Structure formats: structure tokens, C-alpha cells
Amino acid sequence: MKRNQLSRGQVLLILGGASVMISMAMGIRQSWGLFQPHMIRDLGITAADFSLAIAVQNIVWGATQPFVGMLADRHGARPVAIAGVLVYGAGVLLSLLAKSALVLVLGAGVCVGIAMSCTGSNIAMAVTARTVSPAARSVAMGAVSAIGSLGLTFASPLAQSLISSDGWQAAMVFFLALVAAMLPAAFFAGGSDRIEREAFLGAEQSVGEAVREAFGHSGYVVMALAFFVCGLQLVFLTTHLPTYLAICGMDPTVGSTALALVGLFNVGGSYLFGWLGGRYSKRVLLGGIYVLRSLFITAYFLTPPSPASTLVFAAAMGTLWLGVIPLLSGLVIHLFGLRFLATLAGIAFFSHQVGSFLGAWGGGVIYSALGSYDLAWKSAVAIGLIAGGFQMMMNVRPTARVAAERQAGARSVPQAAG
């Protein structure tokens, strides 16, 4: 089936499935920090042990994402996504039954990390890009990313409510119910597999040729390396902000409300950056997000924390949260075409997850050693400012192959300037 033969209902079903899938996956994953003080107490583990589990989750997610992207590009999104949902359920169940740090690492770390590769942003963006027309692509990716953030908006406060009233185990059972809701969503998102691949640029390439082409492009290398800071900053906050607030003597609901606000403001932010990415320079917008995040982190940690300042900070960070996803995906399409989007975005995402690993584990190690998060947030700010500057200067010239095809008018992909 050609893309233009899809009915409006079929398009909405595919995009809706992708949105719900990423919403549940991200909502659960980004709420994990709420469990830290309770698991430390009940399982007899340390903050570093818990941080290690989250760090492993992120590095496994990053290490497996390129290979999962290759599988999705070759065999379709549906089998990959459905398998990911089942692994996600296994990871949550192992975390629920954990009696030691090792089992927690296996469940929350290894299993959830693999599952996120199959159900997270890269697969959702590939499904979206494949389903809509090139003219609507940037806005559509922003919209799916925006809807995907709603999971955190309700998952975090509901999980905190259950933790406070019935214990963290009840919240884990709630997460299992959310995983079950991902199954039909993954199935419907996989409807994009029916769209003919021949309509894509670079269809004659092998995956190996596509990867070599990407690593030979200086702009792609800079973008992938700069993506490191995105993971470091975000996972440091989602993992350690609840503990930081507890240290400051704030009620646990402040942390869960802050995470919910991140999700809520991310709805508008993701759509906004998707829309802007269709009209203005994606590289400048992407670098600007890294710089602005660093400035907001500095302002928050340099002032005495309060419930009000925490919620304002969460709203500001939420606006900048997942807006990177449509921008980075759009840049990959701009440089190399659509055919191997899941693979190439997945490779860039590995850098993101190396940053996530250091943000989660490094934050825990620094706190355990120094009794303060000061060094952690200062490092996140410094790296963010450097990465943002390099990102704004990346080379956005499409490869010779793509430029020649577009110039000839064959399978053209209208894009805003990178």
C-alpha cells in the first residue's frame, strides 16, 4: 500500500497507537525515581545500587537501539514493538519481586532498557515519519512526541499516590496495568509496516552502507556526540530530583507533581519544536534547547529550593524535554533520507544513553561520596553549554547521494533548512 492510499482513519489509528505506546513507555520509565527512597529502605540497597539499575537501563537502551532500529527497518515495527511490550512487562514484574540489587538491575535495568528500544521514541518517530507526507512530517513527529509525554503527567502522580497510600509494590502493579495497555497500541502502530518501502530515498542502500555514509558525515557525528548531554541532564533529573527534594525536607508529592508538570508542559513544547523545526533551523533549535536547559538548571540549583521554584523549574524543563526528538529525527531525514531513520537515529541515541548512564549512576555516586548533588549539577550545566554551542554549528549539508536525488526531483522530501 502506498502512503497516499491510507484513509484518514488508518493514519489516525497508526499515529494514535504510536502516541499511546511511547506515552506509556516513557511515563513508566521516567517515574522510576519515585521508588528510590522506598526501595533503598525495603531492599536494603544503597542510592548507588538504585542508580546503577537506572544507569544500566539507559546504557542497555542505548546499546540495543541501533540493532532494534535495524530490525524495525528490515522486518517492520509491529513485531519489534510487541516483543518490546512483553519484555517491558517482565522487567516491571522482576522489579516488583526484587529482593536484591542484582534482581533490580536485571528487571529495571536490562529488561526495561531492551523494552525501551522497542517501544520508545525512535520506533515511534520512524512509524510517524513513514505514515505522513513529507510536508506534514515535522509537525506530526512533534505531535506524537507531545502526546507521548502525557504518560508522565498521570503516571507520576498516580504512582506517588499509590506509594503513599499502599506502598511502592502497589504502584508497580499499576505499572503492569499500563504495560498491558501498550499491547494494542503497539499492534496499531505496526500498521505502518504495510506502507511500501520503495517510496523512500536510499532504498537501494544496504544498512552497512547507510551506517558508513552517516559516520562519514561530520554533521551527523557532531549531532550524535552532542546528544550525549540530552540524556545526561534529563535522566539525572528524573532519577535524583525526588531524592534531592527529600533532602531539602519537601513533601514527596512535590517531586511527583514536578514530574507531572514536566510531562504536561512537554506536550506544548514538543509540538512547538516540531512546528518550529518545519520552518526554522533545526540545528539552532536543537542547540538552543541544550543551552536553555543548562541555564534553567543553574538558576534552580543556585537558589534555595521551594515548592514554588521546583514547579516553575519543572514547567521550564518540561517545555524543553522531548522537543529534541522531532528535531533530531528531522535532521537525520534531511541529511540521509527516510529509509534507515530508525537505524541512524538509534545509533545517535546510543550517545544519548551513555549520557543517561552517567547522569543516573554518576549522580548517585557523587551524592553517596560527597553527600551533595552540587558537583553533579554543575557538571551537567558545563557539558550542556559546550554541546549546545557545537550543535548550533553542525554541518547540515545533505550527503551527495541525497542532494543529487533531490536535485533531480526523484522522490523529493521537502524540508526546512537544517
Keywords:
mainly alpha, Growth Hormone, Chain: A
CATH architecture: Up-down Bundle
Proportion of beta-strand residues: under 5%
C-alpha termini separation: 30 Å
Query: Averaged pLDDT, please?
Result: 87
**Topology, number of strands:** 0
**Helix count, DSSP H or I runs of 4 or more residues:** 18
Helix content: over 70%
| Largest sheet properties | none
Order of helices and strands: HHHHHHHHHHHHHHHHHH
CATH topology label: Growth Hormone, Chain: A
Radius of gyration, in angstroms, nearest whole number: 20 Å
CATH superfamily: MFS general substrate transporter like domains
Could you provide a short overview of the structure?
The protein has helices at residues 8-30, 36-43, 47-75, 77-97, 101-119, 121-131, 137-148, 150-166, 168-189, 207-215, 218-247, 252-277, 282-302, 307-319, 324-336, 341-370, 374-392, 400-407.
Structural topology:
Blueprint: H1 8-30, H2 36-43, H3 47-75, H4 77-97, H5 101-119, H6 121-131, H7 137-148, H8 150-166, H9 168-189, H10 207-215, H11 218-247, H12 252-277, H13 282-302, H14 307-319, H15 324-336, H16 341-370, H17 374-392, H18 400-407
Describe the structure.
This protein is mainly α. It has one domain: Growth Hormone, Chain: A. It has helices spanning 8-30, 36-43, 47-75, 77-97, 101-119, 121-131, 137-148, 150-166, 168-189, 207-215, 218-247, 252-277, 282-302, 307-319, 324-336, 341-370, 374-392, 400-407. It is globular. Residues 198-203 and 410-414 have low confidence and may be disordered.
